[in-house]
Specification:
This protein is 40% helix and 17% strand. The chain has 7 helices and 5 strands. Strands 1-2-3-4-5 form a 5-stranded parallel beta sheet, covered by helices on one side. Strand 1, helix 2 (38-44) and strand 2 form a beta-alpha-beta unit. It is globular, with a radius of gyration of 17 Å. The N and C termini lie far apart (44 Å). The relative contact order is 0.12.
Length: 171
């Protein structure tokens, strides 16, 4: 989506009295370079921006822009490299942890009011990694950890259901 179109959508929502806009869903929003610079524009229009990202594409520019957000969610989904690879199919764990750490450090440096959440998808491939992920998020200094179940029913992935037996094996 073009930057002009994104700004028109923001303008429309501001005119309608929308109080906040979350950039996320349907894929990694930071892959669209037109999103970069949109967070300050949302603020300028009097709304609270928020963003959900997988954290792999963050640099100093977008981290600085994120300081204007009401909240930022980083989809870590694992507490170690192997579980991350099982869930995401790529080895970006260290990069995401580094970017999450940089985000928390920037918040501390700027005294920004942004709330930073580590987002964790409850998935059979990461069950054993959820507790370590929450411990990691706490050590980094995030404000919250959000655990949400994977929607296996609607996606036709019933074979990925988490059973009570799976949960009983957790530490």
């Amino acid at each position: 989506m073009s930057g002009r179109h994104l700004r028109k959508l923001v303008d429309f929502m501001a005119d309608w009295g929308v109080r906040g806009i979350c950039i996320g869903g349907g894929g990694e929003p930071l892959m669209n370079r037109e999103v970069w610079g949109l967070l300050p524009y949302i603020s300028e229009r009097g709304m609270e921006p928020a963003v959900v990202t997988n954290g792999s594409l963050m640099d100093e520019v977008i981290i600085a822009e994120m300081m204007q957000c009401r909240w930022v969610g980083i989809s870590l989904d694992a507490g170690d490299r192997e579980a991350f690879r099982r869930v995401h199919g790529v080895d970006f764990f260290d990069r995401v942890v580094q970017n999450l750490t940089r985000l928390v450090e920037k918040k501390a440096q700027t005294a920004a009011r942004v709330s930073i959440a580590c987002k964790l998808l409850l998935h059979p491939a990461n069950l054993d990694s959820l507790y370590p992920a929450c411990r990691l998020a706490k050590a980094i200094g995030v404000d919250d950890s959000h655990v949400r179940p994977m929607d296996t029913e609607r996606l036709g992935l019933q074979d990925l259901r988490i059973t009570p037996g799976d949960l009983a094996r957790l530490p």
